[in-house]
Amino acid sequence: MMDRYVYFVVGRFLYSVPIHGSEKQRRYMILESSYDITTISYDYVDQLLYYAADSGSPQIWTVEPNEPQHVNIMHQSMTGSGPHNLVIVPHIHKGFWLSDGNHLEVMDLETKDSVINHVTLQYEFVNPKKLVHDVKYDLLFALVASSIGHTNLLSVNYNGSASDFLYNEKDIETFALYNELIILVHKNGGDHVIRSADIGLGSPLKEIEQGKITGIQTIKDIKVLDQKALQPFEKSQCSRVSNGGCEQICLPNYLSKTPTCECFIGYKKMSNGTCVAAPVEDNFILVTDYTYNQVFQISMDNPNTVVTVPLPNLGRPDGILYIHQTNKVLWTTAGTANIWASSLNGSFQNTFADISALFVRPDRIALDPSTGNVYYTGVSQVADFLFDSVIGVVNGNGSHAVVVWEGHMPRDIVLDAGEGLMFWTDHGDRMTGVYRAQMDGSNKRSLVLDDVVWPNGVTLDYRTKRVYWTDGSLDRIYSCDYDGAERKLVRQFDNSSHLMDIQLVEDFLYFTDINMRQVQRIHKDGQGPILRVGPADLGNIQSIFYFNAAYADKTPKNEPCMVNNGGCSEICFPAPGGKHTCGCNWIHNLLADGKTCENVPRCPSVFSNAVVLEDSTCIRVSGNTCAFNCTGIYKARADVTRLTCTDVMDSDGALTWDIQYPCEMIRCPLFIPDGFVNTSCYPLPGSTCTFTCKDGYHPNPLVDHIICDMSGRWNYSAGESTLCIPHHSPHVEQEMAVVQASTGSRNMAIGLGVGVGILLLVLVVILVVISLYRLGKLGTLFGKKTPRTTSFENPRYSENNVDLQPVDGAEVSNGFHYSTLNDDKVDLTQDSRSKQHQQKQQQQSTSSINGTFGNSSA
Asked: 186 - beta bridge partners?
């Protein structure tokens, strides 16, 4: 299915609404005219929209609905004013419309700027209010007033001769034709009545059906959709080959049977048929045009010439400026949250900044010549009770900061970087006025809040320190000083004006008026004539930017921000008194140094056992030179005193230092005077080690071990004494004497301690024996049996190591039996018996002691 659209007009705006399912009820603005659009009609063969704009010099325009920047003015003057009810009849290539003065007018569409003629009517129209063309009958139908206050419906031939009278009734609002039917809309009280009837040319209308439309106050027009019946296919000249073989505009020419190729406004048609836009390099005005959706250059050396800046169709352009150092045109659009950039010739185009994260769209823009930063007024894209509008700034790297977090509908903005001040207008109904703040957003104050309705453009006189602004509702230009005092009315304009942007250049004010298709100029005191600048065939002009290289060099600047960006890692804000402040992206914070943002690439503060010492001169950005300390058991290398941060990035996106390993491990020497540290010890700080002396030396007896300290030297308990001492040296004898004296004293102390211990032990034993004796327990203690031993060493023959064994392993009671040394056996037996007899006598003498002593071995 082919795309089908409804086109309609609201004031100066031309819209389309797709009526197929995929995009149902989505409205698109095709263009905004400089003047109210009074009528439209669609040429379904050449697929062009024609519309009329009611201005002092009425015009007929064409536009390609799918390429709204392809706007072309067909005619700039007509015989009648107030054109309405435009009707395009494609198959005869003519356009008809009604105009004030009861006229029907006609224009040939076969060529551009063809002659417009009155159609001589057989019966003059009286207050005609509706004109319709019917394909089937190939006639024009008109709704005109009758002599009795009713409405007549007539049919008219293309040459003006009357065809027929069809109907007469009061209160007919509008009508449409379809398949031999006429659809009439009447006003009946508060409702609309819609009726269909058989045209039946030559006889009164025969009513077929009637219905009622409620809930609509006013019905302006009615159309019937039937593409096959009402828009029969006919191949256009421009569709027979691609765009008729034209580079830009193809205009059917049915007289010559060959289409005519034209160029868009701002392009020059070359002899080979191509279209070229040759940019002006200096002394020009840039303007944004809502009608053409384009940015144009007006050469001040040839003011009647306009040159297009070839830009992509991104929507209606709003704010505009030019950066001559980089040959960049910056502009904003009504439909995006971007600031766009392009060269004057369109050779490159890109996104300068995307501020969609703030839920605002940039409107007007201004340049800080000190830094190249761009300030913008950001208008909220959602309900203003959720997100306020803002004043923001972006740098050339895309970083952006918000400097003012409030506002309703800020419009224009202008800067005085030399004073560190910015000024802007707000035309919203809550905060209407002119405002001022420092360029970092601090010290915000209002300058004008009274007698201001719709402040639009604002500009500055740097020499006299005055502010100028336009009021689009009061049709005035005002001025005041930088503090809001000494307010003056510069110029009052007529009620047909709608003033927009303004810029002061030397002693003249250049400004735009959306109802005037040219830039205008007056002296800044408001006196003298108004000079119009540029061709008269531009559209709805919004913003202007005047560029002249000599004038640009006089624009005030902030010196601190011009040198190394004021030391700021991201954004340098000019401040009053020739000072400056630093700022960051709106989601990041400024670090304690007041210059560096937390998100910028920096060299690490800790790396490779080194800690960088940060101060006001060391913020760890590219080019900074910093001191450092080493950590733990590391020390600075002898050849490294400071580190320099380079612009080389590592894989994680951090900058790198010029020296990657500025610290080395602390180690004590492996060799000592006349000796060496034992290899089982690793000589790091805190390690305890032993050592060995070389031949001819022996270790100092006062030093058991040595300890490695943080200075990389060996430390030991004897202080600075010699670790290795040569043999037979006076020094050795002296130290040995000290050792011997020390050893003797130590041995004496040990002997004394042992003697005292033995004495105490003897005393304890005596006391224990006495106690047992008194208690009668002494006999029990020594009369305890012990098991026989199977072998023992005879003490009498201990030197001969004689081993005595029991004979035949038998038990022998009360004595011993020996297998050798018979003489001793007899003596031992007798001795045993003697002892037994003594034990029995002792037992009898101590009968008071309970218990019997058993036989025991001796």
From this structure: 172, 193
The answer to whether residues 685 and 707 touch, using CB atoms and an 8 Å cutoff, is no
Highest mean pLDDT range out of 648-662, 748-762, 830-844?
Answer: 648-662
Please answer whether residues 657 and 607 qualify as being in contact, where contact means their C-beta atoms are separated by less than 8 angstroms: yes
- pTM beyond 0.90: the answer is no
Q: 510 φ, ψ to 5°?
A: -105, 135
Position 224 scores a pLDDT of 82
User: Is residue 805 predicted with pLDDT exceeding 70?
Assistant: no
Q: Which residues contact 141 (CB under 8 A, 6 or more apart)?
A: 131, 132, 133, 134, 153, 154, 155, 156, 166, 175, 177
| pLDDT beyond 80 at 206 | no
Structure tokens at 857: 């071995």
Nearest to 10 by CA among 176, 220, 198: 220
Q: What's the CA gap between 833 and 855, in Å, rounded?
A: 11
Residue 272, pLDDT above cutoff 80 = yes
Of 47-56, 321-330, 667-676, least confident by mean pLDDT is 47-56
Chain-centroid distance of CA 129 in Å reads 56
Which residues make beta-bridge pairs with 31?
A: 14
Of 56, 14, 15, 63, nearest to 37 by C-alpha is: 14
Q: Give, in order, the Cα–Cα distances in Å from 658 to each of 237, 640, 645.
A: 70, 11, 6
Higher-pLDDT residue of 91, 612: 612
Query: Can you list the positions of beta strands (E) in 33-169?
Result: 37-43, 48-53, 59-64, 67-75, 84-89, 94-99, 103-108, 116-118, 130-134, 139-145, 151-156, 162-169
Tokens of 173: 């609002």
Q: Tokens 């500055």 appear where? A: 460
* Three-class SS state of 118: strand
Higher pLDDT, 179 or 432: 432
Q: Tens digits of per-residue pLDDT, 70-97?
A: 676 666 555 567 788 899 988 888 889 8
For residue 207, what is the enclosing H or E element? strand 206-213
Most confident of 116-120, 124-128, 169-173, 607-611: 607-611
Secondary structure of the chain: what % helix, strand, coil (to 5)? 15, 40, 45
Pick the residue with more confidence: 379 or 215? Answer: 379
Rounded CA separation 413/456 (Å): 10
Cα 436 → chain centroid? 26
Write b or e for each residue in 655-682: b if 16 or more Cβ atoms lie within 10 A of its Cβ, otherwise e. Answer: bebebeebbeebebeeebebbebeeebe
Tokens of 589: 């914070």
- At 296, phi and psi to the nearest 5? -120, 150
- How would you write 389-453 as a 3-class SS string? CEEEEECCCCCEEEEECCCCCEEEEEEECCCCEEEEEECCCCCCEEEEEECCCCCCEEEECCCCC
CB atoms within 10 A of CB 347: 9
